[in-house]
Every structure is written in C-alpha cells, then in structure tokens.
Amino acid sequence: MRPDRPRDPVAGPDSGPEAPYPIQLSGPVIKGFGRGSKELGIPTANIPADGLSEYPDLDVGVYYGVVALDPRQFSYEGENASATVLPAVLSIGYNPFYKNKMKSIEIHIMPRLTEPSPTAQVDSGPTHFHKLPDFYGTPLRLLILGYIRPEYDYVSVEALVEDIRVDCEVARQSLRRPGYVCYLNVDADADEGVGEKVQRWRRWLTEF
Q1: Which residue ranges does the record annotate as region Disordered (predicted)?
Q2: pTM for the full model?
Q3: Are the beta carbons of 108 and 42 closer than 8 angstroms?
Q4: What is the pLDDT of residue 117?
C-alpha cells in the first residue's frame, strides 16, 4: 500500500540525471492490457519489455523522461518535419492493483511543458489526462531521466488515478529544471551550455 505521507514535488537531483540515467528504450507502440484509457481514463503507449534485459537491476516503479515518435508515421499537431520530443511519465513493472503476471512498460505522454497541464488541480471535478490520436505500430524512443516512486497497491481505482495524476505533476516539475529541460529542447543544439553528451542523446531521440 502507498505510504500515507505528502508527495515530494520533484524527483532526482537538481543538477540533472545521474547514473544509471539516462536509460534508453525503444520499440513499436503495441497493444497493452486495454485498461489505461478505458478503465482509468489515462492513455498509455506500451512498448515491448525486451529492452529491459539490458538493465537487470532497474527497479520496478514509476519514472519520468522524454519520448519521441517516428515523424514518418506520427506528427504532433501537424509538426511532421522532424520528431517532436515530449515529456512522459511511465510505469515499469507489474501494477500490483491489477496483479499483472508479465512486466510491462506503460508510457503516458504529456503535453509540452509550455502548454497547460491537464493534471494540475484546478477544481474538484474528474481528472483529465493528455490524449494523443492513436499511433499503434509507430516506432517510439524513450529516454528515462529519473525515478519517482515504487509500485504500490491501492484500495480503489480513484486512489490509483490520483497518485498517477500527482506522478504527472512531479514529472513535469522535475523536467522543468535546467539539468533536464535541455533534453526536450531539440532545436537548440547550438545553445551555449548544452554539452555534447546531451546533444548526442537528443540526436538519438529524433534520428529515426
């Protein structure tokens, strides 16, 4: 069960990703368990879990990072000239609430940090999560930049959804910091202060 204590607003060091991050995973978007959108109202992009074999010590839990989709098959709001890098929150594991038997990678893609956050608390109504058009089969590249929390079981669907809402906000606030937002600014390769290592990661994200 989730500990009954306030959540930290950010995760990871302010200076930027530290070992073992960044972690790179990729693959085509595949059908998941079908619960994210239908039961929880949280659209997720699943990719094959095969790549996790390269990271045998990676804990199950919730992470944050950035993703890009192959622009030849998917464009974000009409931007089809190059891949758009977007913030993401993701779960790696078995989802104890649903007692999955197979490990999965479930990625929720969020809007740009410059756009309004649908998961920010603005009223007491139902939480709305960002939704993209269907892109099954589209190659996806994921760069994991930090760890948020372990997997928990929950007493209700509502409690699970609320924790995922908070996960989204923690991910967004974590990625706003200079040591992380540089992974999103793919059009700024010539910017002073952006090291070659970050530029290499950004090229890996977008060069399909």
Answers
A1: 1-25
A2: 0.91
A3: yes
A4: 94
